[in-house]
Amino acid sequence: MLQKCFDKSKVEAGCDEAGRGCLAGPVTAAAVILPKRFSHPLLNDSKKMTEANRILLRKVIEEKALAFFVTHLSHEEIDKINILNASIKAMQLSLDRLDTPFDLILVDGNRFKPYKSIPYECIVKGDAKFMSIAAASVLAKTYRDDFMNDLHQEFPMYAWHENKGYPTAKHRAAIAKFGPSPYHRITFNLLGDRQLELF
After folding, report:
1. How far apart are CA 3 and CA 39, in angstroms?
2. Are 9 and 24 in contact (CB under 8 A)?
């Protein structure tokens, strides 16, 4: 069962990202501040929810949150600064845009960087433990899915509407056949075990 907060005396901003393991597209991060009394029976780690429930929860979160923001950080930036730094940067850019003051940051995972002078807690599998992180995971996932669905219209051969840029066998087979798109992360192992010189 998700906990409402880490510290009842603090205003907490939950952060999570989507798309770290993808071969194409942005990494997307959300920051969310929920009301102290917020709860919803469907809220969970976004990876454990159905697509329909994620879409439903996104609307609820956007309506009920005290503040939220979602940031896409491009594949070019990922290739430039690496995926860990890009994920942290995207979360911090989302925190920058929150219009409600907060005094504690809850981050899904085990890595973060100091943000201003605000304390933070890194929580492994935090999206399955705390409501604000779970809410951030829902927003990050649904916004990124929408982004990849739009890119699919431009490059349908990679089936991004299905795999969202993750390294499925079908996705890698399409890269082997058509080469990388302008949205692929060239610093990633695009082909996996396939031995084909792309560049």
Report:
1. 10
2. no
| Cα 137 from Cα 131, distance rounded (Å) | 10
Can you list the alpha helix ranges (DSSP code H) found in the chain?
Answer: 51-64, 75-81, 83-96, 131-154, 160-163, 169-178
Q: Tell me the fold of 12-153.
A: Nucleotidyltransferase; domain 5 (3.30.420)
- pTM tops 0.90, yes or no: yes
Q: At what angle do helices 131-154 and 51-64 cross, to 10 degrees?
A: 120
The parts of the chain modelled with pLDDT lower than 70 are 194-199
pLDDT in tens, 168-194: 999 999 999 999 999 999 999 999 875
> What amino acid is encoded at 172 in this protein?
R
- Is 192 in a helix, a strand, or coil? coil
Structure tokens at 172: 């890698």
Domains of the chain, by residue range, sit at 12-153
